Hints:
The chain has helices spanning 3-21, 30-43, 51-78, 83-99, 104-121, 124-160. The protein is mainly α.
Amino acid sequence: MSVPSIVLVAAIILCLVGILGTILPMLPGVALIFVVILAYGWWEGFQVIEFNYLLILGLLTVLSALLNYLSTVMGAKYFGSTRAGLIGAFLGVFVGIFIFPPLGIIIGPLAGAFIGEYIARQDVNRALRAGIGAVIGMFTGIVFQFALAMGFFISFLVKVF
C-alpha cells in the first residue's frame, strides 16, 4: 500500500471515530472530523481540500459546538423550565459526562435540570418535566451532531474520490 493510500485510510478511520464521537460521550465528534480533513488538506497541499471548503466546515464546526451545549438548555426551556432549571441542565451535562460516563450523558442533564427546577419551584412534577425536556434537547443535539458529522464525512469522500 502506498503512502497516499495509507494516509487516506487513516483519515477515513479517524473520521469514522469522529462519527462515533457524536453518539458516545468522551470521544471527539464533529471537531475531530474537521481536524482530520484539515490535516489531510495540509498533507496533500490543499489541492483537493481547498480553503473555502475548510472555511465552511470550520464555521459549521463552531456552530455545532454551540448548538451541542445549548440544545440541552433549549429542551429544558421548551418544557417550561425556569432559569434555575436551565442552569442545572447546563451544569448537569458537564458533571454527568465526567462523573458517570457513559450513562452520565442522560443522568447529568436530567438530574441537573430536576434539581435546579425543584429548588426554584418546589414542584416535583415541573422539575421532572424540565429534566425530561433537558434530555430530549440533548438527544436532539446528538442527532444534529450525527447528521453534520455524516455530511462532513460524505463531502470529504466526494472530494477525495
